[in-house]
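Most newcomers find our protein records easier to grasp once they have seen one. Sequence and backbone structure share a record, each on its own labelled line. Nothing more is needed to start thinking about how sequence determines fold. As an example, a complete record with its sequence and its structure tokens follows.
=====
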Amino acid sequence: DLILLDLNLPKRDGRDVLGIIRGDPSLSAIPVVIVSTSDREEDVRYAMERGAKAYISKSKGFDSYSDEISGVIKYVS
């Protein structure tokens, strides 16, 4: 129903994974929400231009992160 994807994965870059997801017909219709420590504008732009439905930055603090995750939960419920 939903893929939560971090851009900073330990073995493979999340940008590569997003490309794989968008290029795979069996996965491409699944909404992807990026959840990352990066709040760099170029990372946000990159993700959104490649089909991410939302971008949540963990660096904004717990309250903001919690509110944004709650919004995602409402989206998929």
